Amino acid sequence: MIRAKGHFWLATRPDWCGELAQAGAQTMTQALGRWWAAIPPARHPTGEAFQAMMAEKWSPVWGDRRQELVFIGIGMDQADIRRRLDACLLPATAFTPQLWADLPDPFPAWGVREAA
């Protein structure tokens, strides 16, 4: 893999959008900010570009929370990458505060972790 980048959502941080940037041997993850779904609608931008993005990305259940990662390289096994990433996902029925509150979270603190 030459490069990987994108946004990710962790069950242990439901309000935070994580950012992944990997190039060669260097990998960085950090908080990009809060998902729009975690921000009161009165504070959302009202412009056309924002509304178009929301229409494209918004889920009635999860809002704008999602996994959106890109992997760039030569000879990569796309099916294997998808299989490994899919194994990390929680089923929708498992996403409740009582279940995610005690999940291990190896990332450094980005903000206040919400209590169950």
Radius of gyration: 16 Å
- Sketch the major β-sheet: 4 strands, antiparallel
Structural class: alpha+beta
Task: Return the string of H and E elements.
Answer: EEEHEHH
Count of structural domains: 1
* Number of helices, counting only DSSP H or I runs of 4 residues or more: 3
Assembly annotation = single chain
Shape by Cα distribution: globular
Low-confidence stretches: none
Question: Could you tell me the strand content as a percent range?
Answer: 25-35%
Features:
single chain, 116 residues, alpha+beta, 4-stranded antiparallel β-sheet, 4 strands
In short:
The chain is an alpha+beta fold and 116 residues long. It contains three helices and four strands, in the order βββαβαα.
Describe the structure.
The chain has 116 residues and is of the alpha+beta class. It has one domain. The chain contains 3 helices and 4 strands. It has helices spanning 48-57, 78-86, 97-100; strands at residues 3-9, 16-23, 26-34, 68-72. It has a 4-stranded antiparallel sheet with strand order 3-2-1-4, with no helix packed on it. A hairpin with a 6-residue loop joins β1 (3-9) and β2 (16-23). The longest helix has 10 residues, at 48-57. The radius of gyration is 16 Å and the shape is globular.
